[in-house]
Specification:
With 210 residues, this protein is of the alpha+beta class. The chain contains four helices and eleven strands. It binds the ligand Nc1nc2c(c(=O)[nH]1)N[C@H]1C(S)=C(S)[C@@H](COP(=O)(O)O)O[C@H]1N2 and molybdenum atom.
């Protein structure tokens, strides 16, 4: 099995569920150069935005057949999904067995209908943070727009009311305070990618810096 195949890697992470594996194998779930944390550190560049649910909007635009904008109520009416995943920050902590819930990216994509020319997605946030990802990476069944962590509304420090969660990549690829998904025709760098971070960010091959 190739470590570069994202789908197979997700399968392997699923098999690594502690309910199905002995504790000794926990070690195998920590990517190279990472250590396990029991806490959930907060990492934010700049100010933590205050977002009012009454004025909150998610805009979906760019290379799509059907651009749209959602209010918080409209978002809540979309399909829901829970994920149980390990997450890895480029600053070397890994949080195992985290529980998230929200709207699967696929539900957004089904409604937006990306054009064949859409190659990448730029995540946009309240506060101006951005991060880029190839569109094909967003269809592994584990990418969600999360409003719930550990069964509770997502805390503001961790990106509440809504953030993206992309478990298979370093956590800077998961924008907090998400307010836009822009479909674009090339893999353009987001905030940290312009400051030297890797365009892709796979923790298993340590794609830390570009
Ligand atoms: N809008 C926004 N999203 C962001 C960031 C940020 O500064 N602003 N930091 C990123 C980085 S570097 C990491 S490691 C994670 C941290 O998420 P956490 O604070 O919930 O641990 O969010 C990512 N998403
Ligand atoms: Mo990070």
């Amino acid at each position: 099995m190739s470590i570069l195949d994202p789908f197979k890697r997700v399968q392997r992470l699923r098999q690594a569920d502690p309910k199905r594996r002995p504790d000794a194998d926990l070690r195998e779930r920590i990517p190279p150069g990472q250590y396990r944390t029991e806490k959930f550190p907060v990492l934010t560049y700049g100010e933590t935005p205050v977002v009012d649910l009454k004025t909150w909007r998610l805009k979906v635009w760019g290379l799509v057949e059907n651009p749209f904008m959602l209010t918080w109520e409209e978002l809540q009416a979309l399909p829901r999904q829970k994920i149980h995943v390990d997450i890895h920050c480029v600053t070397r902590w890994s949080l195992l067995d985290s529980d998230w819930e929200g709207v699967p990216f696929t539900a957004i994509a089904e409604r937006a209908k990306p054009l064949p020319s859409a190659l990448a997605v730029m995540q946009h946030s309240y506060g101006g943070y951005t991060t880029n990802m190839l569109i094909e990476e967003m269809y592994d069944g584990e990418v969600i727009l999360a409003d719930t962590f550990g069964g509770k509304p997502l805390e503001r420090d961790h990106g509440g009311p809504l953030r993206l969660v992309v478990p298979k990549l370093y956590f800077w690829k998961s924008a907090k305070w998400l307010n836009g998904l822009e479909f674009i025709d090339r893999d353009a760098p987001g905030f940290w990618e312009r400051h030297g971070y890797h365009m892709h960010g796979d923790p298993w091959t340590e794609e830390r810096f570009g």
